[in-house]
Design goal:
The protein has helices at residues 3-40, 44-64. The protein is an all-alpha fold and 74 residues long. The longest helix is centred in the N-terminal third of the chain and has 38 residues, at 3-40.
Amino acid sequence: MRILPVLLVLPLLAGGCVVKTAAKVVTLPVRAGGQAVDWATTSQDEADRNRGRKMRKHEKECRKHPERCQNDQR
């Protein structure tokens, strides 16, 4: 007889897991789409970092070969 109350409460405890799983399945396409957009775009911070890297590389090249950079307007 002690097992009966446990069996009655078990579906209520397991229901939370089912709801959480269902919510994850429903929101998965939205999260995946957001991740794809994030991968496809460049943030301002990334753009600044890439521009700085490009400028440092250009300056290094100008120090090695100044004749190539005399008329350069970068």
